[in-house]
Amino acid sequence: MEQNVIYIPLVLSVIGLVYMFIRASWVKKQASGSERMQEISKAIKEGALAFLNAEYRLLLIFVIVASVALFGISIAVDTTSWMIVPAFVFGAFFSALAGNIGMRIATDANARTAEAAKTSLPKLFKFLLVVERLWDLELQVLQFWVDFIIYVLGWTIYRSRRFILQ
Questions:
Q1: Is 59 in contact with 144 (CB distance < 8 Å)?
Q2: DSSP string, the chain
Q3: How far apart are CA 45 and CA 128, in angstroms?
């Protein structure tokens, strides 16, 4: 049973992803306002994603340079492992993914939020709570996957080193 405990968070994260996709589809089904609101929302989304693409190009350069530096440090310092490099790369990738998903959720919700505010305050608060929970859940699930991947990689390497030493 103790060996299977690691799968509980994995299953819960998959359930969280399913819930996230269900709620995201609910957000997209909400009224998105007038044509003008939709045009503005589309322009905001295009601009936000263009900004993220430019930012990701710079982030890629930083990740490559930092990975090389971290690998150099892992060789020079006996108490570190080369595993810091894939851990750093996984963290950077999932951080960028979280930013992209979060930006898409936010830009999909902006005109819908304004439309909900036009109808009633309770509808607005319900909508905002769903969007906020969606964004939080997305960050937590992605953080779990980063931690899980790093744990599995680290444990696999630890076990292989222990086997080699025996």
A1: no
A2: -GGGTTHHHHHHHHHHHHHHHHHHHHHHHS----HHHHHHHHHHHHHHHHHHHHHHHHHHHHHHHHHHHHHHHHHH-TT--TTHHHHHHHHHHHHHHHHHHHHHHHHHHHHHHHHHHHH-HHHHHHHHHHHHHHHHHHHHHHHHHHHHHHHHHHHHHHHHHHHHH-
A3: 18
Helices 7-29 and 84-119: crossing angle in degrees, nearest 10, is 30
Distance CA 158, CA 85 (A): 16
What is the tens place of the pLDDT at every residue in 50-80?
Answer: 999 999 999 999 999 999 999 999 899 888 7
Q: pTM of this prediction?
A: 0.72
Output the six-digit token pair for 130: 């769903």
User: Do residues 12 and 137 lie in contact, with contact meaning Cβ atoms separated by under 8 Å?
Assistant: no
- Per residue in 115-158, pLDDT (tens digit) is 888 888 888 888 888 887 777 777 777 777 777 777 777 766 66
